[in-house]
Fold this sequence. Notes:
There is one protein chain. This protein is of the alpha+beta class and 158 residues long. It has one domain. Helices cover 25% and strands 45% of the residues. It has one helix and eight strands; from the N terminus they run H-E-E-E-E-E-E-E-E. A four-stranded antiparallel β-sheet has the order 1-2-3-4, with helices on one face. Strands 5-6-7-8 form a four-stranded antiparallel β-sheet, with no helix packed on it. A hairpin with a 7-residue loop joins strand 2 and strand 3. The longest helix has 40 residues.
Amino acid sequence: xxxxxxxxxxxxxxxxxxxxxxxxxxxxxxxxxxxxxxxxxxxxxxxxxxxxxxxxxxxxxxxxxxxxxxxxxxxxxxxxxxxxxxxxxxxxxxxxxxxxxxxxxxxxxxxxxxxxxxxxxxxxxxxxxxxxxxxxxxxxxxxxxxxxxxxxxxxxxx
Length: 158
């Protein structure tokens, strides 16, 4: 009897792992399609390996949503880059784009997604000082964004 229970538990664990992997794959595909469309509109591209994704409840429904910080660079052949925040809410088990906006970039600030906690998206920032060259911002800070309806609102931290 004990061995039957063990086998059943192993089968259930394997099934749950497969379902979780499929959901992650579907989430990534939704995000990939969205960013590719944004890059195409901006006549730029997303560089490899710098996208950051965090999950947590953003609309107080008890279900994990997703915040994505991504970069589009080379707009119209330039050496510009812009960092964007996109929020995807989980509706009926699937991610749905809900809100987004530019949050950083060349000659503005560098921004790094750190976490989602208590319906708030947290970031570390590095802003430009008056004498900083365009390559190298130096002023460290923090900021956070909250989702209100279908709009993101920034709340700078001191």
